[in-house]
């Protein structure tokens, strides 16, 4: 067995990168990399050196596909379109483009730090909440279908449920960390936004107060909450291991709504002055007669969309198109999703004709987004952008309910 000591600086790195580039999307095993290195250098490289180099650079440069199998990050991304004329310049190289959509693969906090002042006009995002649920370790457990933060809710009707992260297991130290994360996120986001830009953040009733407090502390104005009326499989369970003893008890209410927190970067002067100068400060009306409302009837994401984009937190187009449309009051500017996942915000922006930018850290989800954005964006608009007003008066979401 050879050692690292016999190689020039950078030789092992270049050898691994070359081997993985040749193997493309399917990646290579440690054994295949070892064989490649031996052929390339005429000398064996210790598999421990290969492993430690790969581990140190995952997920930045490499993506772990499974036990001992890796590929170059972004190997599966397809750049479909060239940059359109008049596109606002942003730092970094997008890994994917489609129509007016750009996707960057990066840590969004690092990415935001690099971006020019006043380059984004609205944010619609569904961030990670468990802090740990989107780490490579937890994602590997989710993809392997066992252990970790992700759990499959109980099935009462024979339908297989999608995995949900366990938010209630967050300790108070983790909740503090969550608040610090959102405070930092808010502070880094603030300069990148134009004055009057709205920020809409998906939350859940257990942590929304922390996010709200953190964004308020970062200097945003709280502008209310949009209630997504949706019945999920969260809550409603009887006490664990004591179902029969306490048949009339549920530990938490069955969740029938999802809060989407609404914030605004302070406007310059009056809203009218801000609208003239920055094109932001208000929310786009549904029509002459109907302002954007803060209760939107929705359904769980339907099977058709989940088949297109198999992300555990996929949000439905019927809902996303309504909130994304509202975020740019004059329909001008750029919408950002710093935690893009499989791209439901970006697809919604594409569908309503807005420029958008997404940032996603995980290479597998970035690749998924590159495939799903055009398909989600092309889905017919069956919702007609109608809101419920007042609560429960009308079920506007025509997308069929699929548990
Ligand atoms: C709740 S999911 C969003 C899913 C999205 N709503 C959709 O419909 O596909 C949050 C996403 O943020 C990504 N993420 C987590 N931390 C990140 C970070 N620091 N920078 C960029 N993306 C991150 C995760 O990989 C995950 O895909």
TrEMBL record:
Residues 120-370 form the DNA methylase N-4/N-6 domain. PROSITE patterns: N6_MTASE. This is Methyltransferase. It is an enzyme of class 2 (transferase). The keyword Magnesium does not apply. Its EC number is 2.1.1.-. Belongs to the N(4)/N(6)-methyltransferase family. Keywords: Methyltransferase, Transferase. The lineage of its organism: Bacteria, Bacillati, Actinomycetota, Actinomycetes, Micrococcales. It comes from Leifsonella bigeumensis. InterPro entries: DNA_methylase_N4/N6 (IPR002941), DNA_methylase_N6_adenine_CS (IPR002052), RM_Methyltransferase (IPR001091), SAM-dependent_MTases_sf (IPR029063).
């Amino acid at each position: 067995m050879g050692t690292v000591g016999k190689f020039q600086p950078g030789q092992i790195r270049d050898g691994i990168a070359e081997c993985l580039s040749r193997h493309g999307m399917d990646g290579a095993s440690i054994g295949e990399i070892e064989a490649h290195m031996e052929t390339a250098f005429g000398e064996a490289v210790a598999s421990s050196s290969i492993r430690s180099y790969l581990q140190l650079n995952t997920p930045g440069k490499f993506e772990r596909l499974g036990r001992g199998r890796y590929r170059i990050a972004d190997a599966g991304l397809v750049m479909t379109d060239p940059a359109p004329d008049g596109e606002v310049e942003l730092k970094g190289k997008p890994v994917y483009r489609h129509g007016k959509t750009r996707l960057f693969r990066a840590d969004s906090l690092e990415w935001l730090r690099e971006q020019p002042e006043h380059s984004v006009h609205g944010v619609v995002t569904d961030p990670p909440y468990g802090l740990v649920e989107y780490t490579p370790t937890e994602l590997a457990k989710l993809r392997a279908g066992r252990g970790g933060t992700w759990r499959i809710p109980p099935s009462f009707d024979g339908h297989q449920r999608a995995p949900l992260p366990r938010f209630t297991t967050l300790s108070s130290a983790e909740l503090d960390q969550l608040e610090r994360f959102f405070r930092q996120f808010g502070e880094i986001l603030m300069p990148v936004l134009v004055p009057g830009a709205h920020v809409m953040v998906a939350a859940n009733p257990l942590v929304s107060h922390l996010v709200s407090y953190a964004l308020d502390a970062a200097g945003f104005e709280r502008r209310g909450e949009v209630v997504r009326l949706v019945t999920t499989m969260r809550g409603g369970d009887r006490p664990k291991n004591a179902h029969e003893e306490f048949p009339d008890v549920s530990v938490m209410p069955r969740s029938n709504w999802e809060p989407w927190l609404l914030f605004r970067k302070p406007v310059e002067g009056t809203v009218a002055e801000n609208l003239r100068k920055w094109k932001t400060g208000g929310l786009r009306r549904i029509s002459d007669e109907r302002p954007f409302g803060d209760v939107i009837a929705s359904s769980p994401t339907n099977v058709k969309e989940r088949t297109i984009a198999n992300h555990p937190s996929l949000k439905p187009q019927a809902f996303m198109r309504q909130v994304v449309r509202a975020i740019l009051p004059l329909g001008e500017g750029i919408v950002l999703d710093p935690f893009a996942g499989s791209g439901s915000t970006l697809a919604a922006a594409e569908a309503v004709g807005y420029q958008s930018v997404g940032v996603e850290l995980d290479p597998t989800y970035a690749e998924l987004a590159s495939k799903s954005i055009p398909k989600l964006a092309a889905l017919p608009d069956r919702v007609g952008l109608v809101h419920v007003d007042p609560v429960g008066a009308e079920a506007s979401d025509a997308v069929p309910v699929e548990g």
